[in-house]
Amino acid sequence: MAEKLYSLIEHTADMGIRVKGHDVRHLFRKAAQAVFSIIAHQEKVINPGQQSFEIELKADNLEELLVNWLNELISLASAKEMIFFDFKLLKITERILQAVVYGSSAANYRMKTEIKAATYHGLKLEKVPSGWQAEVIFDV
């Protein structure tokens, strides 16, 4: 059975997710996958015209790094009119993230929910017995 990516968090006006990973790298990857599974559904698998982008981010702490990561992906996807489907985190520390992300044209997808940004409101990032868990609220 496939691993569950995320669960939705009830929120009055916005949308939230709870995501778990066995380590920080896995958590950040699953959070990114969750964002794009909320934004779009793949319609067709016709030569997706895959493109890759390198991302380097710095932050003061891991929580800020998570929000910056998700917002960078949302912003880049919007600017390039793409949907990202694979995320390779090359380096991740408390303050630095280096990754390569892969995407294809948004034309290959059915848009479901527009996510404007990840917010700091209700943000939780913590070590739990099974690894790491995060809760993120998005402005939709």
Overview of the molecule:
With 140 residues, the protein is of the alpha+beta class. The protein has a single domain, classed as Archease, Possible Chaperone, Chain: A, domain 1, CATH 3.55.10.10. The chain is built from 2 helices and 10 strands; from the N terminus they run ββαββαββββββ. Strands 1, 2, 8, 9 and 10 form a 5-stranded antiparallel sheet that branches. A 3-stranded antiparallel sheet has the order 4-6-5, covered by helices on one side. β1 (7-9) and β2 (15-21) form a beta hairpin. α1 runs parallel beside α2 (62-80).
Q: Secondary-structure map with pairings?
A:
Elements: E1 7-9, E2 15-21, H1 24-39, E3 40-42, E4 51-58, H2 62-80, E5 82-92, E6 96-105, E7 109-111, E8 117-118, E9 124-128, E10 131-139
Antiparallel strand pairs: 1-2, 2-10, 3-7, 4-6, 5-6, 8-10, 9-10
Helix pairs in contact: 1-2
